[in-house]
Amino acid sequence: MKRWTVAVLAILGCGCSLLAQAQAQIVDTTVCDVVKKPVLFDGKMVRIKGTVVSGLDEFVIKDAADPNCGFQVNAIWLAYPQGTKGKAGPAAIVQVQPAKNFSGQYTPPSRISVALDKSKDFKQFDSLLAQTHQKGADACLGCARYEVTATLEGRLDAVSDANLKRDASGKIVGFGGFGNMNSYPARLVLQSVSDVTPKEIDYTKIDDATKGDPVPALSAPNAQSAPLPPGPPSNDPYGTLEIVQKIVQTMPDSAAKDQALKAAAAYGKEREHNGVTIAFGTTNEAAPKDEAIGTKDSPDGILFNCTFNSDKLQGPLLGLALAHIGEHVTELRNPAPQNVGAPPILFESDAWVVDTVTAIGGGIRFLTMPGGYELWNSTWPSASRNDQMAAGLKDFLSNEALLSQ
Questions:
Q1: Which of 124-128, 132-136, 270-274, 299-303 has the lowest mean pLDDT?
Q2: Which of 88, 183, 285, 320 lies in disulfide reach of 130, CB 3.0 to 4.6 Å?
Q3: CA nearest 93: which of 344, 367, 403?
Q4: What residue segments make up the domains of the chain, in order of their start?
Q5: Which pTM was predicted?
Q6: Looking at the predicted structure, is the pLDDT value of residue 135 above 90?
Q7: pLDDT of residue 258
Q8: Residue 6: is it exposed, middle or buried by C-beta count within 10 angstroms (0-12/13-18/19+)?
Q9: Dist CA 338 CA 342 (whole Å)
Q10: Residue 216 gets which letter from DSSP?
Q11: Looking only at Cα atoms, what is the longest distance across the chain?
């Protein structure tokens, strides 16, 4: 009995030693330190005190002390391990992937697995970030109700350059980072969360401005097809895209109108297999298949995987999200010469411009961005509308999307 007890104690001692060793390997850092030199943290287990923001096409961690780190991308993309089935995350996303017929050299990364502690803190964290802003009567696209500050632990994945690599002809020959448009140089795959502190986002100003006005269906004036009804989004995204195209065609000729038409056409026709896929579901997990070589061919050897969370895109919001992500696909696949290698801020700005054109053409009177920033308000004086839209978009990109020029 004595020998058995000694053996058990020895095993327990060894286990405690391994646990202590694993804990000692966790690196304490900050968001700003990571985005400054992301590759220094690649593959490491880290602990970060940060504030998590969920929006239309973002699910990111900003620095709790200084959100503006001074870089083009001032945030870390957040992801749950595969199979988590969490509810929080972006409303829409496009991820770029080498197709089965990709002609370049690509080796999928090998990463250690992460097991998420689905503690009470995690469930609170996920539930808070999954809630959307429901008050008011405007179209609030990707508007989360809360941002959450917490201590986050997990595996840090990083690249030295998140931009897509292109050859002299502009063809994509190499892949960059993580998250929406593969544009984030760092990603945290969550292992545990603690010290959860929510902050409700203030939408009071826009709620007061739109009080009493019903949310309109997104419809094209004089269109032959029925408008997109309020309520759950259609399971026919191509029908919604047809409505978007008819809406945009009613608008006066402009560069923004041309952009919006290209965005709606980026998906191609149903069953066309042009390399752009549409799926509905959550967009919050780090799945190895997303970093592997795809199982389908594409005309240019590149896949653009677009996913939409229908729970967050009710009524007219699905059409706006399709237009937004379609603009991303267009910019990534066939960038204008002056936009080759451009930072993500340019693509985000253009996508919100496309949303504005679509909203105005569809009769939406108020379009709000995450965080309560106004992009369109039909009561603005005509002479100042462009200036007010530009100011709202600039504030959103720097303060909410955490992007800098």
A1: 132-136
A2: 88
A3: 344
A4: 204-399
A5: 0.89
A6: no
A7: 95
A8: exposed
A9: 8
A10: P
A11: 90
